[in-house]
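Meet today's protein:

…
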Amino acid sequence: MELVICLGAHGLGADLLADDLICNAKDLEPYGVQSWRQQAVSDTTAEAFAAILNSSDAAKRKGAEARVQLLIEQAPSTGCRALVFSDENVIGTRRDNITEADLYPSAGERIGRISRAMGGQVSKLVLSIEPLEIYWTRLLTQQLRLGKPVATARKLDMLTNSSRSWRDLVQDVSRAVPEAELRVLAHSERTALPRNLLSLALDGRFPEGGTQPDPKPEWDLIQLRTILEAFGQDPRQLPQGKGFWKPFSVAQSNTLQERYNDDLFWLTAGADGMATFIKEDRLEALTSEVTRGQDNDQKNGLGQAR
């Protein structure tokens, strides 16, 4: 059985995949793909993961790890060939990233805890990335939608000049879980679709469908000004007119893009052996659906064509 963790980043498909695995579990059942939530007999498993990630009580974490290991041990008996844990908060939260003005600074420690809880059996880790300006704009927009203040000039400077980038995150995750294959996906509208994300994680095409993203733009200025006003804030803090909110200056945007270009260069060059970089065109190579049903003599796993 494969044990796969989809890490995010935030807004890049992991949340949609988590929903799809639950809401459309019957569609994926013939392929032996299950979510850890299907295996969980109660909310205690969710509480266990929360304790593993957040508790400072060693005894509490140990008890939580035992519950997770029991879940993993029982999964194969239900026909599960790939147990998928998809949660964009595994490596950190939006709030922490904005507060710290840093890109998942605790990712290594957090994913290391999850790996230990799973007995060092993680097969694959999947991380999606995108241009840093787009990523930070998405997080800042989500903060506005929650009624948080508009980012200050100082905060934008801190985000722009942060020393961490995707390369640092990849290095942290790889070092924390060296036994797992780490796949880094270049985010696109196609790779964010849950069935495509699952296909790229498990090396085989799945039936189309599943949970679909909200087509409404996240950072439309008219909507955001209305939201600010609803929360009692001055909508004039945002630019007038239509279009998308662009909080960063031209110079800041250039700095963020240069850093992202450096990340892509490093990943394309092999990432020092730490990760495999996967682009959207990989989907075209996955021409065959994953095998339905379980065959004990099958050696090539879920990705073998029929």
Remarks:
- Strands lie at 2-6, 33-35, 82-86, 124-129, 181-186, 276-278.
- The CA atoms of residues 13 and 39 lie 22 Å apart.
- The longest helix spans residues 250-268.
